[in-house]
Amino acid sequence: MTNEDLIWKALGDPTRRALLDDLASEPLTTGELVAKHSDLCRTAVMKHLGVLEDAGLVVVRREGRHRWNYINPVPIDRVCGRWIHGQVRHLTQAVNRLKSFVEDQEEPWPQ
Amino acid sequence: MTNEDLIWKALGDPTRRALLDDLASEPLTTGELVAKHSDLCRTAVMKHLGVLEDAGLVVVRREGRHRWNYINPVPIDRVCGRWIHGQVRHLTQAVNRLKSFVEDQEEPWPQ
DNA sequence: TAGTCATGTCACTATATGGTGACATATATC
DNA sequence: GATATATGTCACCATATAGTGACATGACTA
Question: Rounded to two decimals, what is the model's pTM?
Fold first, then answer.
């Protein structure tokens, strides 16, 4: 399991992306995050934070009895650069291929 | 489960990202993809292709007894634009927060 | 020091997921 | 038509994952 795999797996869960969204604007304690997600118990939030921390997407600072969770956008940017831009590099030719085969189809392809 | 959730979930598996890598350079039949992944049985490859198709990341064209799998980079680009760029937008201030708190720590934060 | 508050940890459950083999269908080829 | 080939489908298994409640730890506060 490479670090990049950990990042993708962490981002694969909608709850974890929501947690990252919360942390994007400001660091929050675990308790504050739990308060924002009334549908989850505290243990579930902590598990998700653990996954995000293992992936390096969240960095933790302990202060007294508080645990401050910081988003770490660097890995996101790295993955975006290495994989997604690599994919998008093929966009033009792939779209051309799609166009040429869609001419023989009735249904349009997914947006 | 929104379409965006399906995309992230599909990208969360390393095997599926490898399949997309294969399709990035050229469309392939299912049999050709199976040949490229000797560690997987054909059924497993087809399941992964089904997940990618549900997410709209792969488009299928049937030709006789062949099934041609095309990558569809449009959703990847859309997700990259809507979520990742939104995350990276916070990069500067987040990095500043990280820097300021790291001054009080010994260990550097994950790369 | 006693109590509370926030966090950490453990055992457990239900479901999702990745993987497989067996069998069915459809198409090209002899 | 008989056969080989590529794909489709089904039931099944093992494991990973998300989630929960109960309990433990550790720090602030009266």
Answer: 0.86
Question: For position B66, what pLDDT does the model report?
Answer: 97
Q: Cβ separation of A90 and B71 shorter than 8 Å? A: yes
What residues are paired with A59 via a beta bridge? A70
What is the pLDDT, as a whole number, of residue B109? 43
Q: Is A64 left (phi over 0), alpha (psi -120 to 50) or beta?
A: left
Helices B42-54 and B3-11: angle between axes, nearest 10 degrees: 150
Tokens of A51: 């996954």
Closest CA to A74 of A66, A82, A64: A82
Per-residue CB contacts under 7 A with strand C, chain B residues 14-73: 15-16, 39-41, 43-44, 47-48, 51, 63-65
CATH topology classification for B3-73: Arc Repressor Mutant, subunit A (1.10.10)
* Domain parsing of chain B, residue ranges: 3-73
| CATH C-level class of A3-102 | mainly alpha
- A85 CB-to-strand C distance under 7 Å: no
Q: Indicate if the pLDDT at residue B56 is higher than 70.
A: yes
| CA to C1' distance (Å), from A71 to C4 | 30
Give the Cα separation of B59 and B20 in Å (integer): 11
pLDDT of residue B92: 55
Nearest CA in chain B to A52: B110
CA A98 to chain centre: 28
Say whether residue B101 is in contact with chain A using an 8 A CB cutoff. yes
According to the model, what pLDDT value does residue A42 have? 98
